[in-house]
Amino acid sequence: MSVLCPLCRHPAAQPYHHDQSRDYLQCAHCALVFVPAQFHLSAEQERAFYDLHENDLADSGYRRFLNRCAEPLLQRLPAVSEGLDFGCGPAPLLAQMLEDAGHRVWLYDPFYAAEKSALRRDYDFIVTTEVVEHLAAPGVELEALWALLRPGGLLAVMTKRVMSPERFAGWHYIRDPTHICFFSDDTFRWLAKHLGARLELAGPDLVFLQKSGVDAK
C-alpha cells in the first residue's frame, strides 16, 4: 500500500532512513522526508514533550536564536505591519520582539494559544519558527496560512533543512520524536512553485515565501 506524502499528497514515497525508533520516507515528487503516521506521538504525548522545554522570555540565548528570524524579517517588513506567530509556544518571545519593533502580532498555537479567531483574519506576515517539522499535515496547514496572507505578504519559515542521506543519519534533529517532517531546498522550491510564491533561501534554517503583490481574487 502506497503512503501519501503529507505535503503534496503524491503516493511515490521511497525509504530514506531507518533507526531504532522509526522509519523515514522521501517523497519522489516534492522531496519531503517524513515519518509515517504509525510512528507519530499522540496529542497527549506531544504536549507532554513540549512541556519539558524551558523557553523563557528573559532567556538571552533564546532571544539570540529567534533573532536569526526576527532581524532579517524586520528588514523586509513595512512599518506597522500586522502578523501572526503560528506555533508560538508557551513563551511567545518572537512576537514580543516584533511588537517591540512597532508591529502588531497575533498568536496561535494548538497547545498554548488555541484562539481560532487568530486564524480568521488576514496578515502582512506570518512567522513559523521551528514549527513545520512538527506538522502531521504540512500541506494543509501551509496552504491555510498562505490563504491568510495579504497581497505582497511574507511567510517566514524557520526549520533546519535536509542536506543528504549521509548527514541525515547522524542528524540531531531527527532524535526529537515530535519532528516528523523534514524540508530541503528542493522541497521549498516545490512549495514555492505550488503556492505561486517568490522564494528566498535567507539562511541555513530560514526561508521567506512572498505572495504576489496583486490579489488574485
From TrEMBL:
GO terms assigned for molecular function: methyltransferase activity
InterPro entries in UniProt: SAM-dependent_MTases_sf (IPR029063)
BP term (GO), one: methylation
Keywords, in A-Z order: Methyltransferase, Transferase
Pfam family for this entry, one: Methyltransf_23
Domain of life: Bacteria
Protein name (record): Class I SAM-dependent methyltransferase
Organism encoding this protein: Microbulbifer flavimaris
Origin organism lineage: Bacteria, Pseudomonadati, Pseudomonadota, Gammaproteobacteria, Cellvibrionales
